[in-house]
Amino acid sequence: MTKRKLSWLVPVLLLLLLAGYRYYRDSSQQEDMIQLTVVPFETGGGWGYKVMADNHSYIYQDVIPGIAGNRPFRSKEDAAKVGQAVVEKLMAHQRPTMTLTELSKMQVAGLQ
Q: pLDDT digits over 92-102, tens only?
């Protein structure tokens, strides 16, 4: 090979190596994502939920959020449904709060 061919081949190879490294680094970052799960649990008078982040308690909610008073969920299904809505908000980079309107749309029992 001539010097002229080598002078452009070396930078091209370096760019290919850099692009391959960036692709590898970006794909490995997806493995670093936190897994969020909802775990309903029984309370003294009903149900609550925990949002777990990689098997560690991240949010502990033993009462219905967004309403006056300290009332637990009436069913495991309602607790799980609201917990899942909270997870979806977290994944969308939103505040994990729930409003009375949102709870009503989900038909959560015991709001009145």
A: 999 999 999 99
